[in-house]
Amino acid sequence: MVYLKNFYFTSGLAEDMFLNSIRRTCYDSFYPFQILPQKGIDEIGFKDITILYGGNGSGKSTMLNIIAEKIGADRMAPYNRSNFYEDYLEHCDLDYANAQMEEKLIITSDDIFDYMLDIRRLNEGIDNKREERFEEYMDYKYSSYQLKSIDDIEELRKHNAAKSKTQSQYIRKTLIDNVREYSNGESAFRYFTRKIKENGIYILDEPENSLSPEMQLELVNFLEQSVRGFRCQFIIATHSPFILSIRDALVYDLDKNPAGPNDWHLLKNVQEYYKFFMDRREEFEAIGEQL
Q1: pLDDT in tens, 3-44
Q2: Domain ranges for the chain
Q3: What predicted TM-score, i.e. pTM, was given to this entire model?
Q4: Measured between alpha carbons, how far is 216 from 208 in angstroms, rounded to an integer?
Q5: Torsion of CA 51, 219, 1, 65, to 10 degrees
Q6: CA geometry: angle 76, 206, 219, nearest 5 deg
Q7: Using one digit for the tens of pLDDT, what is the confidence trace for 65-112?
Q8: Distance between CA atoms of 228 and 114, rounded to whole angstroms?
Q9: How buried is 5 (Cβ within 10 angstroms: 0-12 exposed, 13-18 middle, 19+ buried)?
Q10: What does the alpha-carbon distance between residue 273 and residue 277 come to, in Å, rounded to a whole number?
Q11: CB contact burial 129-142 (16+ within 10 A = b; e otherwise)
Q12: What pLDDT, in 10s, does the model give residues 228-254?
């Protein structure tokens, strides 16, 4: 579902006029000015899934943050706004094909990292509780208990549970908030599935981080289904060949000069993967014969 149709970044001429109007010279950086004009790209159009590809320093994360800020997307983690961010945004413009989206959200690698740290801290608390539950189980298992009042009903339940269950069953039952069921990659994937809902624009900055190739393919499938079934639009910055290969995605190559659309299989990063596997083609074919 295309909500955002076009985005117009500050042109090189507008940048020059603004920077020439600044009389103070105490600034070391005018970020995000002076980043995108060298890419030769003033505007981009969007499809259901639009992908920004490029090496470090190519400007893809800068473009995502500018778009997210201009459309008013929600975000969790802070980012580098600089003194001139609002000035830059004033020179940007956009076109909506449909402005009836229910959510606008940007998800970054920092969001995923913070989420996994929260899970780790929660698990550490659970580990402490687990030791307490071990002792509790032994006390209840081998002691008798007589109900004295209705207020003691919970204690009686614990005694009965300890009598009827194994130690591991008792621990799992009483620690119902135990989240140590998922790997980091699975937790990262679940973060996307929980945050992405119906009728929204979602801006994803390198979503492949923390995801194995298998989980990246799961994410690709989820994103494609979200477009078809949940009327979502995605704008993504990535290096991953798995995500770059999303069907019908519009891919912008920011390493080109000037930057512009390109077929995903012609991108430098993807070609490096291709060369790596082709150089070892005989080894893979030998494995195939054994299977």
Answers
A1: 999 999 998 888 888 888 876 666 677 888 888 888 888 899
A2: 4-109+184-290, 112-174
A3: 0.78
A4: 6
A5: -50
A6: 95
A7: 999 999 999 998 777 778 889 999 999 999 999 888 999 999 998 888
A8: 30
A9: middle
A10: 6
A11: bbeebeebbeebbe
A12: 999 999 999 999 999 999 999 999 999
Give the integer Cα–Cα distance in Å for 180 and 187.
Answer: 10
Rounded Cα distance between 145 and 163, Å, is 11
Amino acid at 89: L
With respect to CATH, is domain 4-109+184-290 assigned 2.40.230? no
Backbone φ and ψ of 96, nearest 5°: -100, 140
- C-alpha 291/C-alpha 287 separation (Å) is 6
Query: What letter represents residue 218's amino acid?
Result: E
In a 3-state reduction of DSSP, which class is residue 8?
strand
Of the candidates 114, 119, 134, 120, the residue with the CA atom closest to the CA atom of residue 175 = 134
